[in-house]
Amino acid sequence: MSYLDFGIVIIYIAAMVIVGLVMQKRASAGIDSYFLGGRKIPWWVLGSSGMASNLDISGTMINTAFIFALGACGMFIEIRGGVTLIMAFLMIFQGKWNRRAEVMTLAEWMHFRFGKDRQGDVARLIAAISILIVTIAMITYFAIGSGKFVAEFLQIPGFLGLEPQFWAATLMIILAMVYTVASGLYGVVWTDVFQGVLIFGTIIYICILASGYALPETFNVSMPLREGGFMSVQTTRDAWTSMIPSWTLDLDERSAYSIYNLFGVAILFYLLKVTIEGSGGTSQYMIQRFFAARSDREAGLLSLLWTVLLGFRWPFIMAIAILGISLGNIDDPEAVLPRVINEMVPVGIKGMLVAGLMAAGMSTFDSTVNAGAAYWVKDIYQAYLNPQASSRQLMMHGRFASVAIVLIGLGCTLFIDNINEIWGWITSSLGAGLLVPTLARWYWWRMNGYGFAAGTIAGMVAAVLQRAFLPDIPEYYAFTIATVSSLTGMIIGTFASAPTDKSVLLEFYRRTRPFGFWKPVRQSIADSVLSKINAENKRDIISTFMAVPWQLVLFLCGMALMTQRWDQFAWLLLIFIALSVGLYFKWYRHLSTEVEVPQ
């Protein structure tokens, strides 16, 4: 990069730090302000911040790698997590269900669902520990991708026996830590909004640049080999730009991507996984936005804005892949993003793009750290170690936990080199260990705190053992091992102990009003109120069946535009309009409707 490019990046970094420090005073009023912004942050800020938080460098690099190597159908692999399809469920019902608990963390939510006796305490503690573990894994994932990207541009040398990527990741983390530790969620969301402007500038420029390149009728792409190195593969323009996935891919068995040869099976598996995950809700920084929402309506609106803004990510990724093909000499698909910016973007603009992509990495990182620290402060330190802790002590521990989480995650990067390797394990094994108990807690009245704890422990232990002894098995096998172990542990733990107190269940149902198996609890509620709850639940279920394809089609429309496949764009647009009309009548018009259930 030129001195001008470096200057732009330095100005951006300084602006981020200043914004965060300005917000420090507002965040220091207490941990509610530090972790939730006092529940006074506007929905459009939370939605914009959520979008920026999902646009991480690591995810952008791996998504670009799949589309570069496999074409448009590579997007379907990232239904496993990178498409963020869980937003459809959060938009329709999971966002408002979580907001109604009026808690700070998912672990604190366990007291709301299972009570404050021993079973509730066990569930809360296990939830806090498990989410902290996942948070550290996510920090590792972000650091690997950010390190690869930043090291390419800032020319950071390796020293003390450590690679340049490690020191580049360390630089990014230190910068983000300054405003995250100082200003909590206030600093996170407002710097995310600022960074979102840079991100959109990056997207617009790259898409305009790529629109000037036409794909040849035949060309070569590259794929990584299982044993190291890369192989060149020839494809055609029609095959590469097709939005309709094939049932099989028929890739060379030597390729690391040959695990996706049963492509139809993989997509169905990812859809099943997302359905379970979405129906059970999420944790970490995503759910923190909904705990901070001011009402059911604002929870829905922030989700809608979040999802629409995320739709701009996919034409950007497609544009990067097209530019990568135009270069014609890229071996590593995960290097497409930095190579394109390094070789095809002029001086000055390059600094803006690097700053914008650094913004994408830091916005995801800061959200994850802030949300993860809340579990230590609220659910371990204050709940069990020092219940009488002062506000000053809690704030101090919030900042201490942020630093500790980052250092552990950064240390883990020394043992993992490949972005897809850590991301596949997080989404299909480690995260899968949490799915079953996370799902059942909403829909099954009999499940108790011991069942949640036993299922979570069994699932996560299975994920760690799978990683240690069977690291190379396909993702759907890893997912099956984790989920079956988790389901077994949950059932044993639930039926080996007494049900949750009925008064706790009634209060949970009265405020949350989920669908599912709640007959013993619903018997205590008047029929006139139940009919309103049933109507809301029915609307939500129908709307979810529309929202999932609506989100996928939204993303595919942008990709079809970039590939200039007007035939595909036309029918995708028609489907999108039809689904939007359905969502308007079945979901959007009812956003302000909330059923009142008497005490």
What does it look like?
This protein has a two-stranded antiparallel sheet with strand order 1-2. It has 25 helices and 2 strands. The longest helix has 47 residues, at 164-210. The model has no long low-confidence stretch (mean pLDDT 83). The protein has helices at 3-22, 24-27, 31-36, 43-54, 57-70, 86-99, 106-114, 118-154, 164-210, 237-241, 263-280, 284-291, 296-310, 313-327, 336-344, 349-385, 391-412, 419-430, 432-443, 449-469, 475-495, 502-512, 519-522, 527-563, 566-586, and strands at residues 218-224, 230-236. Strand 1 (218-224) and strand 2 form a beta hairpin. The chain is globular, with a radius of gyration of 23 Å. Helix 6 packs parallel to helix 11 (263-280) and helix 9 crosses helix 14. The protein is an all-alpha fold. The N and C termini lie far apart (64 Å). The protein has a single domain (3-23, 41-154, 161-590), classed as Sodium/glucose cotransporter (Up-down Bundle), CATH 1.20.1730.10.
Give the % helix: over 70%
CATH class wording: Mainly Alpha
Regions with little confidence, pLDDT below 50 for 5+ residues = none
**Backbone shape:** globular
Helix and strand run = HHHHHHHHHEEHHHHHHHHHHHHHHHH
Structural class comes to mainly alpha
Distance between the termini: 64 Å
Count every beta strand, where a strand is a DSSP E run of 2 or more residues.
2
Tell me the fraction of residues in β-strands, as a range. under 5%
Q: Any idea of the CATH topology?
A: Sodium/glucose cotransporter
Specify the biggest β-sheet. 2 strands, antiparallel
User: What would you say the CATH architecture is?
Assistant: Up-down Bundle
Domains, number: 1
Total helical elements: 25
- C-alpha Rg, in Å? 23 Å
Quote the average pLDDT: 83
CATH homologous superfamily assignment: Sodium/glucose cotransporter
The largest beta-sheet arranges its strands as 1-2
